[in-house]
Amino acid sequence: MTTTLAYAAQSASSLVGPFTIERREPGPDDVQIEIQYCGVCHSDLHTVRNEWKNTLYPSVPGHEIVGRVSAVGSKVNRFKVGDMAGVGCMVDSCQRCASCGEGLEQYCENGFTGTYNGPVFGGENTYGGYSSRIVVKQKFVLRITHTENLAAVAPLLCAGITTYSPLRQWGVQKGQTVGVVGLGGLGHMAVKIAAAMGANVVLFTTSPGKAEDAKRLGAAEVVVSKDQGAMAARQNSLDFIINTVAAPHDLNPFLALLKRDCTMTLVGAPDRPHPSPDVFGLIFKRRRLGGSLIGGIRETQEMLDFCAEHGIVSDIEMIAMKDINTAYERILRSDVKYRFVIDMSTLQA
Ligand code: NAP
Ligand code: ZN
């Protein structure tokens, strides 16, 4: 075992602060990574505050990890010391079930192991990227093909894949009109990726001040979702919607934006339920309400390569590790442009 510096929450009401953890020595199939940057996902905040009622403490969050390989096991053939590498939301899965067989480890029928808070999905507690080093099975390590701006690549490992996967699953195509609800970490990646896929992106926001940014990021149009007139003008006009909002809200005004037979997919994971959608809004247009969880390892690599090819990274604000609690408060005020990334060289005991 190697003693590793980290930041952890000790309870739902405590701040995240310095902590030390033990990482295993790399086994034959393991890659050891010195973490350079770690993105801050709203899921980190839901977890440290036990909002999903499943947190195991101490909790070391962080699942948008990029860094440099510092050791590899004897059977590792895809990485060598010195390579850049990424780790997203999963570090293991059963590898035997039908979902794993299809490369959909996030839907593993025996439960995948999360990069942090692992026991929820089976196995021991796992500690995430708010730490200086991590050891991960080769199969769950991603290759980084971006050559610059590495800190801004980190958020692709969760925010990028969580939005790329449903856009692909629901077959978004050039020329379609795609709605993105919420311009936070996930939402801003959805705007960039859907625009790169050739979609005509309409951003729905509660923050009128974000309109200019949304256009710069690739949205063709911005609608303030509290403006009923603007919402009415967009009824029955969208081919697909990805809803990234992290809080319970009325889904009906958004479902009404869909054309017949089209789908709104939820990726936001609030701690309390949304009010039930109106049945008539669904049945009269054969509309669908769906959900989607991150993405499999194969698709995560595909997304990283797609983003490298299209020059897509996250818009980030870099922070020092000690400023993480302030960053959480800003996330809660929707005051993030558009992802905080921790510079892990600032991690000190
Ligand atoms: P975030 O950066 O906080 O962005 C969420 C955005 O939602 C905000 O910026 C805001 O955008 C909007 N919003 C927030 N509160 C709202 C409210 N009360 N009413 C309406 N809009 C509101 O969070 P994130 O990191 O993108 O994560 C979003 C959600 O996705 C979280 O619940 C997270 O846990 C979940 N998540 C799910 C998956 C998955 O696999 N499905 C993966 C990662 C994260 P505007 O200012 O533009 O309105
Ligand atoms: Zn995440």
- State the assembly state of the protein chains: single chain
> Helix proportion of residues, in percent?
10-25%
Rounded to the nearest angstrom, the radius of gyration is 20 Å
Ligand identities: NADP nicotinamide-adenine-dinucleotide phosphate, zinc ion
What characteristic shape results from the CA principal axes?
globular
Number of strands: 17
Q: Summarize the biggest pleated sheet.
A: 7 strands, mixed
Number of helices: 10
Strand content: 25-35%
Calculate the terminal CA-CA distance, rounded to whole Å.
18 Å
SSE sequence, one letter per element: EEEHEEEHEEEHEHEHEHEHEHEHEHE
Instruction: List low-confidence stretches.
Output: none
Q: Look at the helices and sheets and give the structural class.
A: alpha/beta
Integer average pLDDT: 96
Give me the secondary-structure topology.
Blueprint: E1 2-9, E2 16-23, E3 30-39, H1 42-48, E4 65-72, E5 84-87, E6 90-92, H2 98-101, E7 113-114, E8 133-137, E9 142-143, H3 159-169, E10 177-181, H4 185-196, E11 200-205, H5 211-217, E12 221-224, H6 228-233, E13 238-243, H7 252-255, E14 258-266, H8 279-283, E15 288-291, H9 297-309, E16 316-320, H10 324-332, E17 339-343
Parallel strand pairs: 10-11, 10-13, 11-12, 13-14, 14-15, 16-17
Antiparallel strand pairs: 1-2, 3-4, 3-8, 3-17, 4-5, 5-9, 6-7
The structure holds NADP nicotinamide-adenine-dinucleotide phosphate and zinc ion.
